[in-house]
Amino acid sequence: MSDVMEPMIHEDRLPGHESRLEPKPDWEPRYRGSGRLEGKVALITGADSGIGRAVAALFAREGADIAILYLCEHDDAAKTKEIVEGEGRRAITIAGDLGDKQFCERAVQQTVEQLGRLDVLVNNAGEQHYDEDLRKISEEQLKRTFQTNIFSMFFLTQAALPHLKEGAAIINCTSETTYKGSPGLLDYSSTKGAILGFTRSLAKNLIEKGIRVNGVAPGPIWTPLNPSGGQPPERIPEFGKDTPMGRPGQPNEVAPSFLFLACEDSSYMAGQVLHPDGGNTTAS
């Protein structure tokens, strides 16, 4: 796809790898599995680190095999694969640019060929770049952020639909910035608002097929996203302290929201968004 912008990889020369992040995010599931995803296959984008890794670990504990999609952090992806396999499940890693429609199509096909089916699609991957001055957001950055954060969800869902059966689930990761705004994340917040509209509309579009679509809108969660250019370096020590809980969340505090929406526990929910955000919720 010739008009795909090149990924803006670690443009701020800060750690983009969870393996280099200190302190390390908490990804480990907090409880024993109960087979809620037994025999299922989940494709999770951005599963190499952060929320995606925690979701992969929890899904695997609940019985799912996992396709780990990521951009270029091969060491992190290998660690997530090791975590999934440590839970006794199969895992494959697929590296590439989610802003490229052809890559998304290949990734879904590889998942089905190697893992046998596809039951849960988790659109989690995202990128953000901090700019308080709207005029400093370049055309390249604007296009890149939309390609990664929302175009990829269209591309992957289009590719996945022929393989999703009745009872399948799609979970899209939006953000608290959809509801409360962010003066320094103008393009990022705009994509997250688009994800909310996509989620609610897709839920109505697919409900007659028995495919449930829901979303998760995390608050400030300690992952590589913010130290990698998503926030100014001077703000990182105070990251998440302005929430009512007075701290940032951990990935394993978000993953259970994805699990609930992926399994039969949420069988009467479609077009809904859960808010693990430390009490910051301003949703309506």
TrEMBL record:
InterPro entries: NAD(P)-bd_dom_sf (IPR036291), Sc_DH/Rdtase_CS (IPR020904), SDR_fam (IPR002347)
Keyword Transcription regulation: no
Top-level taxonomic group: Bacteria
Keyword Oxidoreductase annotated: yes
Pfam families membership: adh_short_C2 (PF13561)
Keyword annotations of the record: Oxidoreductase
Compositional bias of kind Basic and acidic residues: 8-32
Region called Disordered, residue ranges: 1-32, 224-253
Family to which this protein belongs: Belongs to the short-chain dehydrogenases/reductases (SDR) family.
Protein name, entry field: SDR family oxidoreductase
Organism, scientific name: Sphingomonas limnosediminicola
